[in-house]
Write a structure and sequence with these properties.
By secondary structure, this protein is mainly beta. It has five domains: 6-494, Integrin alpha, N-terminal (Methylamine Dehydrogenase, Chain H, 7 Propeller); 505-610, Immunoglobulin-like (Sandwich), CATH 2.60.40; 617-720, CalX-beta domain (Immunoglobulin-like, Sandwich), CATH 2.60.40.2030; 729-834, CalX-beta domain (Immunoglobulin-like), CATH 2.60.40; 840-957, Alkaline Protease, subunit P, domain 1. The chain is built from one helix and 73 strands. The longest helix has 4 residues, at 886-889. The termini are far apart.
């Protein structure tokens, strides 16, 4: 059934659409209307209606309504008061004067749960500041809705509130789903605050809030947008009112990211209040916290300039869908106060076609010429056509998106009864302008309001497919209609339908899907049509692919014609035989728009011409061998195609193994014998006893004459080290721990290795201590070598005898690091050369002895700690030595110098269990603690001068 030139809303009867009645006087239901998406996940699109002056929670708190779609069964009238949770539900505003529902929209799937969500604006809400405005996202879900939902109950799991920033911003005056602007797979939101003073008085500001997988809080402050969770979009000049209208724009430039459109109807690009709109391109991340619309330059978006003074272009903006079927989304902009055809205030709307790039920084709507878009002219004076504009979806099922435009002041059935207009999309052929008075049912139709002052068309939108019949439906709001009292408001759903004979759908397939270039078979592309076969039909297609038309295959055209009464026709691609070695090549046919048909196969159809010249593959087997084993790495080259002649193939050699050292030398090419499909290169590892990492030999096919490379990636063989791969661990000890300088015994430092013993190994060490190498003991080196198969190696320190009275001296060896072993003993290992020359030795035998040394080095000897409190009058650290008896003192002391500060402390008592000697530098007291726990009192066995720089090296255990 075709649409008439004029459709009367009064004729809605349940089969062609239905009427939705507001509840109470002055609710103004239908002030905003929108498709809601599929909120409850039942497969039918739902509706969303705003009633901003409802008093449900106080005067003008506002109310919105979701009506669920279903398969038929709609009556002529539907009362919003009948919503019960199963057929839809009401959404209640929060506070007096919020005007919740002033703007409503589908939000897409913001939280990625598979259900469409909705967004509602309350531009006078004062959550953060007076009239800062607030918007609300309500999440869709699978059933479980109650008859009423209070927006005050949003908690992050069922939706969330979005708070405006400053006093009087009126954020939420316009709201919309934004599509997926940043390409993360979640739908985003856009909110307008046209009264924001971000760049001067009432410049206006808009906000994009990114969707994400859950994790929303109950509230989101727009002031917190930082580029990662969304961003602000700043208007340009004072009184521009940027954000008075906002919308998803679809993918205007075809880059795969959804774009945005923002209206600023107070801007002055071509005269006062001519109005301006802005397209902001989506992209993959990289958004800053804010974007200034003044920076749009054609690559990140562009400005669209209104035409005449007081046109108020941008008062309404929307995505238009793909009106001309070129694969790019288009946009529509309303200028409700424009004077087309010199008719004052008739209003004008503008469609701007999307395209692949090539936008300038700005576009003047006066330049629309039919190829880049077109103007749509209102009819009568003060109709205000374009006060609301929207995509209508595909209302007539012809495969092209349609438009809907509202003119709330038109007078078809009384003053300001209102009128709306559907303009059908089509494949090209648009003029620079279209007069709405020319709509005749084939190119679109008018929709008349019912009664005077209904203001039908104040809000218009696609409704999606509410009744599931496969055609997109429409919704129109008439906020001033009086179904249940003055200005209770009314909305109207008009069902989409076919406009007449169904056009044939064309499908395309190829068989066989591949042929050889020198073979006898061809690629046959078969076009099939359904529906009427009576007349001939020409179908267009495009040609692409890697094969060159007229070179790699015989030339073909870009259209094919069905004969009358024939359901199929074919295009034959005949490959051109050659002897050139080249990759396989593709021939891709894609159905293109034309007259008298629709496209059934929307994806490209690919046939492949297989190269039947020589192709080389490379593999290695085995993939690894041991360096000392009998097996070799065998690299096998395989050719397909022509085998008749010998063929030389080039390859490159890389890897960590060294050619000619780690394996026998090989060349950089291999030759196939005539009639042979394979050739081989053998890599024979060189045996050694060196402990080293596994090493690789990598062959990579290189370009040459007479073949193509089949194996494009490097082929790696590995030579496995079969010597010990675990580094030996070296430890160091000295025994005995001390020897006399004039005695016969030496200090023996024993180096021990664990792990592999097969090879000799040199270990480095450093020499420290108080003894002088080459003077106090015979010179030694700084490394020692393990013999093959030996676990130990030794360094002997032979003291040099002398008659000098001196302090005991130490020889400290410390293992040094190397790549050939690991260090087990990390600290210094000390041996002590005991002075055995006559020295001034003083023995404490009784309590309170006074010991006074000589001017040379002295040894002050204590046999036990009970010779209490001997007084040492002239002890000099580093020169003199306190000698204590290991057996007489006990406490686990071992013979030799105290090797670390763990056995000695300056203080008043031991603080650890290992500390034995305590020097009180305040009093000079020297104490012994046999256990270091404080359980038994330490014994003072000597008194030195106070304040000495005494260390553990001044005490020796004999």
């Amino acid at each position: 059934m075709t649409f008439p030139a004029v459709f009367q809303l009064s004729s809605l009867n349940g089969t062609n659409g239905f009427i939705i009645n507001g509840i109470n006087p002055n609710d103004e239901s239908g002030f905003s209307v929108s498709n809601a998406g599929d909120v409850n996940g039942d497969g039918f699109d739902d509706l969303l209606i705003g009633a901003p002056e409802s008093n449900v929670n106080g005067g003008n708190s506002g109310q919105s309504y979701v009506i669920f779609g279903k398969s038929g069964g709609f009556g002529t009238n539907f009362n919003l008061s009948s919503l019960n949770g199963s057929n839809g539900f009401a959404i209640n505003g929060i506070d007096f004067g919020d005007y919740s529902g002033r703007s409503v929209s589908s939000a897409g799937d913001v939280n990625g749960d598979g259900f469409d969500d909705i967004i509602i604006g309350a531009h006078r809400a004062s959550s953060t500041n007076v009239d800062a405005g607030q918007s609300y996202v309500v999440f869709g879900k699978s059933g479980g809705f109650t008859a009423n939902f209070n927006l005050s109950g949003l908690n992050g799991s069922n939706g969330f509130a979005i708070n405006g920033i400053n006093i009087g911003d009126i954020s939420g005056y316009s709201v919309s789903g934004a599509g997926d602007v940043n390409g993360d797979g979640f739908d985003d939101l856009i909110i307008g605050a046209f009264d924001s003073n971000v760049n001067g008085t009432e410049t206006g500001q808009s906000y994009v809030v990114f969707g994400k997988s859950g994790g929303f809080s109950a509230n989101l402050n727009l002031s917190s947008l930082n580029g990662s969770n969304g961003f602000a979009i700043n208007g340009i000049n004072p009184n521009d009112y940027s954000g008075v209208s906002v919308s998803n724009a679809g993918d205007v430039n075809g880059d795969g990211f959804d774009d945005l459109i923002i209206g600023a109807d107070g801007a002055d690009p071509n005269s006062s209040r001519s109005g301006q709109s802005y397209v902001v391109f989506g992209k993959s991340g990289g958004f800053s916290a804010s974007l200034n619309l003044s920076t749009l330059n054609g690559t990140n978006g562009f400005a669209i300039n209104g035409i005449g003074q007081n046109d108020f272009s941008g008062g309404s903006v929307s995505s238009a869908g793909d009106v001309n079927g070129d694969g790019f989304d288009d946009i529509i902009i309303g200028a409700y106060s424009a004077d087309p055809n010199s008719v004052t205030g008739a209003g004008q709307s503008y469609v701007v076609f999307g395209k692949s790039g090539g936008f300038g920084a700005s576009l003047n709507l006066s330049t629309l010429n039919g190829t880049n878009g077109f103007a749509i002219n209102g009819i009568n004076s003060l109709d205000r056509s374009g006060v609301s504009v929207s995509s209508a979806g595909d209302v007539n099922g012809d495969g092209f998106d349609d438009l809907i435009i509202g003119a709330l002041r038109a007078d078809p059935n009384g003053a300001s009864s209102g009128q709306s207009y559907v303009v059908f999309g089509k494949s090209g052929g648009f003029s620079a302008s279209l007069n709405l008075s020319s709509l005749n049912g084939t190119n679109g139709f008018a929709i008349n309001g019912i009664n005077g002052t209904d203001y039908s068309g104040r809000s218009v939108s696609s409704a999606g497919d509410v009744n599931g019949d496969g055609f997109d439906d429409l919704i129109i709001g008439a906020w001033s209609a009086d179904p249940n009292g003055t200005q209770s408001g009314q909305s109207y759903v008009i069902f989409g339908r076919s406009t007449g004979t169904t056009l044939p759908s064309i499908t395309l397939a190829v068989s066989p899907t591949s042929v050889t270039e020198n073979g006898t078979a061809n690629l046959i592309y078969t076009f099939t049509r359904n529906g009427s076969l009576t007349s001939p039909l020409t179908v267009n297609y495009t040609i692409s692919g890697t094969a060159t038309r007229g070179t790699d295959y015989a030339n073909i055209g870009t259209s094919v014609t069905f004969a009358a009464n024939s359901s199929t026709t074919t295009v034959t691609v005949n490959p051109t035989g050659d002897t050139t070695v080249e990759p396989n090549e593709t021939v891709i046919l894609t159905l293109a728009n034309g007259t008298g048909y629709t496209i059934g196969t929307t994806t490209p159809v690919t046939g492949t011409i297989l190269n039947d010249d020589t192709r080389i593959a490379l593999a290695v087997s085995p993939a690894s061998v041991t360096e000392d084993g009998t097996a070799n790495l065998i690299y096998t080259f395989t050719r397909t195609g022509v085998l008749t002649n010998p063929l030389t193939v080039n390859y490159g050699i890389t890897g960590t193994a060294t050619r000619g050292t780690d394996y026998a030398n090989i060349g950089t090419s291999v030759t196939f014998a005539a009639n042979s499909s394979t050739a081989r290169v053998t890599v024979n590892p060189t045996a050694d006893t060196t402990v080293e990492s596994n090493e690789t030999v990598i062959l990579t096919l290189a370009n040459g004459t007479g073949y193509t490379i089949g194996t494009t990636t490097p082929v790696t063989g590995t030579i496995l080290n079969d010597d010990s791969t675990t580094l030996p661990r070296i430890t160091l000890a000295v025994s005995p721990a001390s020897v006399t300088e004039n005695g016969t015994a030496n200090l023996i430092y024993t180096f021990t290795r664990t792990g592999s013993l097969t090879n000799s190994l040199t270990v480095n060490y450093t020499i420290g201590g108080t003894a002088t190498r080459g003077t106090d003991y015979a010179n030694i080196g700084t490394s020692v070598t393990f013999a093959a198969n030996s676990a130990t190696a030794r360094v002997t320190v032979n003291p040099t005898g002398d008659t000098i009275v001196e302090a005991n001296e130490t020889v400290a060896l410390t293992l040094a690091s190397s790549t050939r072993y690991t260090i087990g003993t990390t600290g210094a290992v000390r041996g002590t050369i005991l002075n055995d020359d006559p020295a001034s030795s003083f023995i404490a035998t009784n309590s309170n002895d006074v010991l006074t040394g000589s001017t040379s080095a002295d040894s002050l000897i204590f046999s036990n700690p009970y010779d209490r409190n001997a007084r040492i009058t002239d002890f000099t650290p580093d020169d003199d030595l306190i000698v204590v008896s290991a057996s007489g003192f006990g406490g686990g002391l071992t013979q030799g110098e105290l090797f670390s500060s763990e056995e000695f402390i300056i203080g008043t008592s031991a603080t650890t269990a290992t500390q034995r000697f305590i020097y009180n530098d305040a009093t000079g007291a020297l104490l012994f603690d046999a256990e270091g726990t404080g359980m038994a009192a330490a014994i003072q066995f000597a008194t030195l001068s106070a304040g000495l720089a005494l260390t553990h090296e001044d005490i020796f255990v004999s």
